[in-house]
Each structure stands twice: as structure tokens, then as C-alpha cells.
Design goal:
The protein is built from four helices and six strands. It is α+β, with helices and mostly antiparallel strands.
Length: 86
């Protein structure tokens, strides 16, 4: 899954989680960002890292219900609970 480098390096829980159609068999389609990243920051590949989904599930257990959501039922969610349905 794609994760904001700042989130991992500064141990900041992602506040914006999204799911897109996977690009290939190894891609989960999940992404997790702090939520305040600028377009410039996100468009720089060095600011986005690949991380195992299990790492985020273990590091922030409160995110587990989000990652268990059916792929077609969730496009994005903020940790305030606002969902963006497909």
C-alpha cells in the first residue's frame, strides 16, 4: 500500500485512507496519507513509500475496520468518519 513518508518517519497516524483499483496482482489499491500533504509533496515519488498493509493494521489498530471494508463499498475515509462512497 502507498503511505506518506512523513506518516512513517514521524509516526503520524494517517487521517486520510483511500482505495483505488489495484494496478496488478500485488497491489492492494490502498493508500494512507496524513491528510495535509500538498500536491507537490504527493507528486514527488520520494515522499510516498510502499508499506505492507499489515504494518499499518498493527501500528494503528483503530484503522483495522477501515481496511476490512469491502473494496466496492469504500473509496476514501477520513478518520473523522466521513466516507466517500463509490
Amino acid at each position: 500500500m502507498l503511505v506518506s513518508r512523513r506518516s512513517l518517519e514521524r509516526d503520524l497516524r494517517p487521517e486520510y485512507v483511500y482505495r483505488e483499483n489495484p494496478d496488478n496482482e500485488r497491489d492492494s489499491g490502498w493508500g494512507a496519507m496524513i491528510g495535509d500533504e500538498t500536491d507537490t509533496e504527493i507528486n514527488d515519488a520520494s515522499n510516498v513509500m510502499v508499506q505492507a498493509l499489515e504494518y499499518l493494521r498493527n501500528r494503528w489498530p483503530e484503522l483495522r475496520p477501515v481496511f476490512e471494508t469491502e473494496p466496492r463499498r469504500l473509496r476514501s475515509i477520513t478518520m473523522s468518519g466521513k466516507r466517500t462512497p463509490e
